[in-house]
Each structure stands twice: as C-alpha cells, then as structure tokens.
C-alpha cells in the first residue's frame, strides 16, 4: 500500500485478483478502501476528501493497526469526524481566518460524500445554514465603515443590530459558506437538494434519531446460533438496550461494530 501522510490507500499489493475486485461492474458499485490514523482523524479526512470526494467510488475506511474493516469502521470515521468538526478549538463557528475557511470546504466535501455513500454524520446544523446562499461583497469586516471608532447609542442602535445580524448570518460568514458550497459541489451539485425541506435534509445527513423499542429491536435483529426472538437472554438484552439513553445506544453500536 502507498502511504499518503495520514491516509493510506490500497492498490499496491494483491495482484490481478485484487485489481479485478476493484473494477467498476454493472450492478455493483466500485469501492475505494482507505486506511487512516485514528489519532489524526481531521488531518486524515482532509487528505481523503481531497483525493476521493470527486470520485463515484464508495469510500470504505479502516484504521492503522486495527483489524476491523467494512461498514462499522466507515460509519465510525464519519462520527469521529463530525465530533472533531464541532471542537471549539477549531474556532470554525466564530472565526474567519484562511484555515477555518478550509475546514468549511472539508465540511462540504464530507457531507456531500456522506450523502452520496448513504452514510450519516453526527452533525446537526442550524436550518439557517441550509438556507444560506453565499454572496461575497467586501472582504472588510467592520460592521459599518469606520465602525471601530464609533460608539453604540440610542440613535444608531437599530443600525448596529442590523449590522451584527448581517455579520453573524450574512456577509460576515460568506467566505465560509462559499467554501462549504464549493466543497459540496465537488461531490454533486448542492442545488440538487433544493427540492427538500431543511428537516428532510437533516434526516438524510444525521438520521431520524428514533429511540429504540423492544419491538423495534426484535424486528431488526437477525437471530442465529439457536437464538430466537423468544429466547430469555434475547429478551433481557433488548429490554436493557431499549432503556439506554441515545448516547449509550450509540456507544453500544460502536462497540459491537
């Protein structure tokens, strides 16, 4: 395998059989396996999305020095990335330097790829963000010309409030949103989502967030090795799972996958 900083891409070993298995075939999606560092998820994601966001192949992630592969590690990657992108230390949501803009480009690429590959991200965004259309004007960030030398008074309070709103959800975040849209459009056109309401987009990106029930679990679990839905240990297990809060349910899924 060829190392790519924090990411490693399969393709160097395995011979003809390996190459054949990665070919695009009718009725079967091409898959691209990528190995990443669990300790450097954000850096890995930047490299992976730069290389593969534009490709139609379905991404499958695995981790250095771990044997797990397939859907479980892939879903965990998107979850870990979601949490990294919400870290306050990144200063994404109240900052405007060039590095932050590139994080928004990564966010766009990642959300687009997650939608394309039918993956979920644990990253609920404000509905205003879905509706926002980037439209750059002036790059200067004073609320009004010469604003740093002015005091807020009863006479200009209304103007100040309008300027703060524009800086917070308008022209002040245009560069970030433009980078997000450019990153998303590398995967497929963001305009393709125009027919969906904001809550529908959130469901596609983050899932419905339904709480588990005993009956629902019994309907979804495939039983084997002599166990059935009426087995006492199975009943005990699903009763405990249904009592867990959403956070512990996610932790359980992470453990079993």
UniProtKB/TrEMBL annotation:
Keywords: Transferase, Ubl conjugation pathway
MF annotations from Gene Ontology: ubiquitin protein ligase activity
Chain ranges passing through the membrane: none
Coiled coil, from the record: none
HECT domain span: 60-257
GO BP field: proteasome-mediated ubiquitin-dependent protein catabolic process; protein polyubiquitination
A Pfam family annotated for this UniProt entry: HECT
SUPFAM superfamilies: Hect, E3 ligase catalytic domain
Keyword Phosphoprotein found: no
InterPro entries linked to this entry: HECT_dom (IPR000569), Hect_E3_ubiquitin_ligase (IPR035983), HECTD1/TRIP12-like (IPR045322)
Organism superkingdom: Eukaryota
Protein name: HECT domain-containing protein
Organism: Haematococcus lacustris
Taxonomy of the source species: Eukaryota, Viridiplantae, Chlorophyta, core chlorophytes, Chlorophyceae
